[in-house]
Write a structure and sequence with these properties.
Layout: E1 5-11, E2 15-20, H1 25-34, H2 36-56, E3 61-68, E4 71-75, E5 91-95, H3 99-114, H4 118-125, H5 129-132, E6 135-142, E7 149-156, H6 162-174, H7 177-217, H8 227-250, E8 255-258, H9 271-305
Antiparallel strand pairs: 1-2, 3-7, 3-8, 4-5, 6-7
Helix pairs in contact: 2-9, 7-8
Length: 307
């Protein structure tokens, strides 16, 4: 390719000065062809190092689990049921342990892993110390618009350990003293409500039986209230007992809701990506070294000619 030059006047006595407007691509190609061994050697070194890392690094398997935190399923403001269906009853769906609090609990496991304290980590997860050493990552994350779900990312070198580690995290959350105390208070509240309602129900049942007995004997002809109202109160109390029974069945700690299938292939290392990045990086570095060597040799040659 012919070079285009333009004359730039600098000084009348100095004569014309020529400035190059274009880079000669053919010259660049000649330099690269002359230094092709440097480019090839650099690429080979990068690819070899990447292959060693990709094929000798232990595989890492990843699983993402969702943990459901227990809710305080108590009626809002202790409002009366008034024969309201159970499935339509408004509940106070606030978690006994919020997602942020649960995240901090699981974060303590992450700290033990970062500190390489495998003895305590194994005890917390109820696994062996050798199994704890296989764990690569435990990362808790909260979800938007969800106050009772916690997302946990687990990475380990052994694929079969993923379910055991996930269940160990759930058990660790359930053993949290703060959560256990909240569950104990919840159970005591339900017990107290059940005793109070049971006593009221028994009194109303006795009153109902007494009134029916007296009516049958003819001793009562005029009542100061409607007997149907009494039956309505009794039905309402029975429904409240059914609600408490259902809430008692819901008393539980955290539990796995989504664990997903075990991964068939390791997540890391991504061999194809590593080799591709290494190849491209080696190519660019090889080209840079080729031009650098070319410049260095020309500079040395010029220095010899003009010492």
């Amino acid at each position: 390719m012919a070079e285009e030059k333009r004359e730039v006047p600098v000084c009348p006595a100095a004569g014309p000065f020529y400035a190059e407007d274009e880079i000669d691509l053919y010259e660049l190609f000649i330099v690269l062809w002359r230094r092709k061994r440097i480019v090839a050697a650099t690429m080979v070194i990068f690819m070899f190092a990447a292959a060693l890392y990709a094929f000798l690094s232990p595989p890492v398997y990843r699983q993402t689990v969702l943990i459901k935190l227990p809710l305080n399923n108590m009626p809002l403001n202790n409002m009366p049921l008034n024969n309201m269906p159970l499935n339509n009853m408004p509940l106070n769906n606030m978690p006994l342990l919020s997602a942020e609090e649960a995240k901090e609990v699981v974060h303590s496991l992450e700290n033990l892993l970062e500190e390489h304290n495998y003895v305590k980590l194994a005890g917390a997860l109820e696994i062996k110390e050798d199994e704890a050493r296989q764990i690569v990552k435990i990362s808790p994350q909260t979800l938007r618009r969800s106050n009772n779900l916690l997302k946990v990312v687990i990475e380990t070198h052994t694929r079969s350990l993923l379910p055991k580690i996930a269940q160990g995290i759930v058990n660790f959350i359930n053993e949290n003293p703060y959560l256990k105390e909240k569950i104990r208070i919840w159970e005591q509240t339900l017990d107290q409500k059940e005793r109070t309602i049971s006593v009221r129900l028994a009194n109303l049942e006795n009153l109902k039986n007494y009134i029916l007995s007296e009516i049958q004997k003819g001793n009562l002809r005029l009542l100061g209230f409607n007997p149907l109202d009494l039956e309505g109160y009794i039905l309402n109390l029975k429904q409240q007992l059914e609600v408490i029974k259902a809430q008692r069945e819901l008393i539980s700690g955290a539990e796995l809701v989504v664990s997903g299938a075990l991964p068939r292939r390791p997540t890391k290392p991504k061999r194809a990506l590593i080799l591709a990045v290494a190849g491209v990086s080696g190519l660019f570095l090889g080209i840079f070294l080729a031009f650098f060597v070319e410049w260095w040799e020309k500079a040395r040659e010029e220095h010899r000619k003009n010492p």
